[in-house]
Backbone:
């Protein structure tokens, strides 16, 4: 589309993980959608791990002399977040878009994502209307309900890989682990404006097979991560201390009860497994409290680096001069614009 | 302005569009007669109304105005912390953006700082707020805070305060701590003065406080209190915690073994088990203490730094008197 590198406005990052379709097909489809935007763009494919078929496919596209295609090959699978960041390092556009490596959304709709960025910082795709059975739908609703309750955001499709954002968002977030799915929540916490955009689901987006326990574990971990990030990163002792204190109290009550039985009914204390249980609970409570104290110590000693506020912008006009004293101020003009 | 300001006045704003102009006028009118170089650090805490536009207008016309802008609402403590970090003055004065504090009192606060105090706290002795929802809870909270921290201040919630910059810039501020910076600063044992200041009823806008804050304040306070006693010597602290457990564990284990030796039967499992659990716990606590030492060692909040903040140096100095002829 454009030959000069400086003109690139949009960088599209496609992290290709284990779940992917034929890249040649994908490339053609995304290209068609992106050309419709009439914006100078580049496509960055990040191959996350040794997927020979993908590399081979991309090789053949590059040979067809496409100047706006970049391929980053990682030797090992580092996860989608790392792949996105690896692509971002090479991105030159002022706007960043991520797209999934399989058919999720209708490429005709990509313009909708970009349009939102006029007054928002992050646009998150939401496949709607969406196919799926009753069970599938219930599972999704439950998960997003949990995330919503914890984060206070109404989100519908964290699994959608189509997102668009301004460059500054990724510069500040530096994703790792499984954070790409929680991008909306993380960005919101940093003070960016986030919007969900309804995109038509691709006709070929269907997942055949059963969700394995691992997927569910991921979902639960996601909720937990959000919970922890939103609620307790600044006040760990509130969380650990509360948990630890209640454990300790529970154990102490149990011990008291055992001692009471020993004194009143003469039940032998030493031979009861319940004694071990109570000792364990007490000790667990203490450990949790100690963990909380340690976490709080980390926050306390690093408080000057860990800021409550993010992206504070300082506006100062040193050359503005000092207005004349108030008494002689211009009549009719106040300091209000 | 080329010369570095001596005084920085820090004012956080959150949806205070009607108050921006009048407050600026009052500040300038109060500070100009003092005859010192000053700057106004105005913090916009993610306001949704015209506050930002009006602040921007001020900054564009007056080089003494430094505007700090948040992308979203981060809370008053964060706003204060950002203002304190940005400020370049030797003395920092904080106040509310709602016109309830009177800028004319700043001169008085400065006088106390010059008299040698590190922190000067305003006391709204004639407070213009609702009695039940604001004044009574505040009185109880202040009493509690004073008792816990040993810094008996009548009015921790008053934002009009003056600090020596070298001190306040080193005090960690997070959560809801702006309302007891003096208590927080008490780690460094500063000299604190309290003076009565004027307080006006709100003219524009709405109050943003409610009763719900008291609970958070008290929790934060407990955390600070624990930290202040614990931060510098985590190993000692954890060891004190671990010692009784260690003793109990050893006692249980020894008694179980002795019992089995004397009676010739197998040792009582629950008893020996408890002993082992306790021993493990004591060991883990000691390790936590060691970890704490490491964290503290790598961090930047050190006791000796606090000591340096407020120390007074008295030495016999030979002054060479130069005679100006």
Residues:
């Amino acid at each position: 589309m454009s030959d000069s590198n400086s003109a690139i406005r949009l960088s599209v990052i496609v992290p290709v993980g284990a779940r992917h379709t034929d890249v040649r097909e994908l490339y053609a489809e995304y290209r068609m959608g992106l050309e419709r935007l009439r914006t100078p763009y580049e496509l960055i494919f990040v191959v996350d791990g040794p997927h020979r078929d993908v590399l081979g496919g991309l090789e053949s596209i590059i040979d067809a002399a496409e100047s706006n295609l970049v391929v980053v090959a990682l030797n090992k699978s580092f996860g989608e977040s790392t792949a996105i960041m690896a692509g971002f390092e090479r991105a030159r556009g002022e706007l960043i878009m991520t797209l999934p490596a399989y058919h999720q959304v209708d490429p005709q709709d990509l313009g909708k994502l970009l349009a939102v960025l006029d007054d928002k910082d992050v646009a998150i795709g939401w496949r709607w209307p969406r196919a799926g059975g009753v069970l599938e739908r219930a599972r999704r609703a439950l998960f997003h309900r949990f995330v919503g309750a914890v984060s206070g955001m109404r989100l519908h499709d964290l699994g959608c890989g189509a997102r668009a954002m301004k460059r500054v968002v990724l510069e500040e977030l530096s994703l790792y682990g499984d954070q790409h799915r929680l991008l909306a929540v993380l960005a919101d916490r940093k003070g960016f404006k986030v919007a969900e955009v309804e995109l038509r689901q691709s006709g070929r987006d269907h997942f055949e097979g059963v969700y394995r326990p691992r997927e569910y574990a991921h979902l639960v971990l996601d909720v937990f991560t959000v919970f922890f990030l939103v609620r307790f990163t600044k006040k760990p002792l509130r969380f650990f201390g509360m948990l630890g204190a209640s454990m300790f109290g529970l154990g102490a009550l149990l011990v008291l009860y055992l001692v009471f039985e020993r004194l009143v009914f003469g039940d032998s204390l030493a031979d009861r497994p319940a004694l071990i249980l109570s000792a364990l609970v007490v000790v667990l409570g203490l450990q949790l409290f100690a963990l909380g104290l340690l976490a709080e110590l980390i926050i306390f000693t690093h408080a000057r680096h860990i800021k409550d506020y993010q992206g504070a912008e300082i506006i100062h006009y040193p050359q503005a001069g000092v207005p004349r004293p108030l008494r002689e101020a211009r009549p009719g003009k106040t300091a209000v614009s | 302005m080329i010369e570095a300001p001596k005084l920085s006045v820090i004012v956080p704003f959150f949806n205070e569009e009607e108050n921006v102009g009048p407050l600026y006028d009052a500040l300038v009118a109060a500070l100009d007669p003092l005859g010192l170089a000053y700057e106004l650090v105005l913090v916009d805490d993610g306001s949704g109304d015209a506050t930002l536009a009006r602040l921007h207008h001020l900054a564009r016309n007056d080089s003494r105005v430094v505007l700090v802008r948040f992308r979203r609402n981060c809370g008053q403590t964060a706003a204060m912390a950002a203002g304190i970090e940005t400020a370049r003055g030797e003395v920092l004065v904080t106040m509310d953006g709602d016109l309830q504090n009177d800028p004319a009192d700043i001169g008085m606060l400065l006088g106390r700082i010059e008299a040698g105090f590190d922190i000067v706290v305003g006391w709204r002795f004639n407070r213009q707020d609702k009695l039940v929802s604001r004044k009574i809870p505040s009185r109880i909270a202040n009493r509690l805070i004073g008792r816990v921290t040993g810094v008996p201040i009548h009015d921790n919630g008053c934002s009009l305060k003056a600090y020596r910059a070298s001190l306040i810039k080193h005090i960690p501020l997070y959560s809801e701590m702006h309302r007891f910076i003096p208590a927080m600063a008490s780690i460094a044992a500063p000299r604190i003065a309290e003076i009565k200041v004027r307080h006006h009823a709100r003219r524009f806008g709405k109050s943003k406080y409610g009763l719900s804050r008291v609970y958070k304040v008290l929790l934060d306070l407990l955390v600070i209190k624990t930290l202040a006693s614990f931060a510098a010597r985590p190993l000692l602290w954890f060891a004190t915690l671990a010692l009784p457990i260690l003793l109990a564990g050893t006692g249980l284990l020894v008694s179980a073994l002795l019992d089995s030796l004397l009676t010739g039967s197998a040792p009582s499992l629950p008893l020996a088990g408890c002993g082992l659990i306790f021993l493990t716990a004591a060991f883990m606590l000691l390790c936590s203490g060691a970890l704490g030492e490491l964290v503290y060692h790598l961090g930047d909040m050190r006791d000796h730094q606090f000591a340096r903040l407020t120390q007074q140096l008295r030495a016999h100095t030979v002054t060479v008197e130069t005679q100006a002829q």
Observations:
- Confidence is low (pLDDT under 50) at residues 328-337 of chain A.
